[in-house]
Write a structure and sequence with these properties.
- This protein is α+β, with helices and mostly antiparallel strands.
- The chain folds into 3 domains: 55 residues, no CATH class; 190 residues, Orthogonal Bundle (Transferase(Phosphotransferase), domain 1), CATH 1.10.510; 33 residues.
- Helices cover 38% and strands 11% of the residues.
- A hairpin with a 5-residue loop joins strand 5 and strand 6.
- The longest helix is centred in the N-terminal third of the chain and has 20 residues.
- The protein starts with 11 loop residues before the first helix and ends with a strand.
Length: 316
């Protein structure tokens, strides 16, 4: 968090994330370690310049445990998930989410890029900057910007209140991406997003379920359909989802250690950098993008020269 131009103090979403991460302790939620401060401007410059009185002379970093992959990064690298792997990942997501909901915290930004996976196959819910406490049976008032558009529940698109089941809609969207390899509702804006949702999920034969029939069994479609109920009052809760017959049907969920993920790291910013490098190489050497990416997709490395080590550590 670079606060050089911040005139409103420490970001509220960062305070929110630190607050909630410090209270949560679950294997499927990212573990908060500390806050690190890196000084980037001399204090005397701030002290002697009245125009900078509200500026912060530090960069702040939220330090958490490390996970080698994001779910979206794995999908972008071509990692596929069969029934047992999908169940393993989904079950861990739901167990982490159940714990959050039991602590009266709604995540509000579940998406594939905020779901981390370690090399040992442990799934971690991350990025709790949008998370919010709630009271049971009390609706929350709508705020702008909560939940990434493609994972946003329909009530957030046309109503002024919502509940914790917006997280279940988002999990249903994650489940769809695990099955198809891409987001199932890809709107350009809120109006378009709602139009796509209604088109895909309404009618005598909803388009979405017709498209997924060839890729999923009846139990998979039933659970996903319950997660993607248009009426939030009819939507399945996380507790109900965890005891759904989907998890009892064969093939059952594999163990986390059996996920057998790709080697190296799978984070979006690494992949974007890698693809840009490949495209530049392609232009210069007239090679095909497909062959280059296939050859290098397992070597997503960080350039150590780009990393800077923080110089001061504080505890909260």
């Amino acid at each position: 968090m670079n606060l050089e131009k911040s005139k409103e103090g420490f970001p509220i979403d960062a305070i929110n994330e630190i607050k909630h991460l410090r209270t949560l302790n679950h294997p499927n939620i990212i573990n908060f370690l500390e806050v690190v401060v890196d000084k980037y401007i001399k204090y005397e410059k701030v002290k002697n310049n009245t125009n900078m009185s509200l500026y912060y002379p530090w960069n702040f970093y939220i330090v958490t445990e490390y996970a080698e992959h994001t779910l979206s990064g794995l999908i972008q690298r071509g990692c596929t998930f069969d029934y047992s792997k999908t169940k393993c990942i989904l079950k861990q997501i739901l167990e982490g989410l159940e714990y959050m909901h039991n602590q009266n915290i709604v995540h509000r930004d579940i998406k594939c890029s905020n779901i981390l996976v370690t090399s040992s196959g442990i799934v971690k819910l991350a990025d709790l900057g949008m998370s919010k406490g709630f009271k049971e049976d009390v609706l929350l008032k709508k705020e702008t910007g909560i939940v990434t558009l493609w994972y946003r529940a329909p009530e957030l698109l046309y109503r002024n209140d919502y509940s914790k089941v917006i997280d279940m809609w988002a999990v249903g969207c994650v489940m769809g991406k695990l099955i198809t390899g891409k987001a199932i509702f890809r709107g350009k804006d809120e109006k378009h997003q709602l139009e796509i949702i209604m088109k895909e999920l309404t009618g005598n034969k909803p388009i979405l379920w017709e498209k997924l029939k060839s890729k999923s069994d009846s139990m998979t479609l039933d659970l996903m359909e319950r997660m993607l109920k248009l009426n939030p009052n009819d939507r399945i809760t996380v507790k109900q989802a965890l005891v759904h017959p989907y998890f009892l049907a064969k093939p059952k969920a594999c163990k986390a250690s059996e996920l057998k993920l790709l080697d190296g790291e799978s984070h979006e910013f690494f992949i974007k950098e890698q693809r840009e490098s490949i495209l530049n190489y392609n232009v210069q050497n007239e090679c095909t993008y497909k062959d280059l990416f296939k050859a290098r997709k397992h070597s997503l490395l960080v350039n150590e020269d780009q990393l800077s080590l923080p110089r001061k550590i504080i505890s909260l």
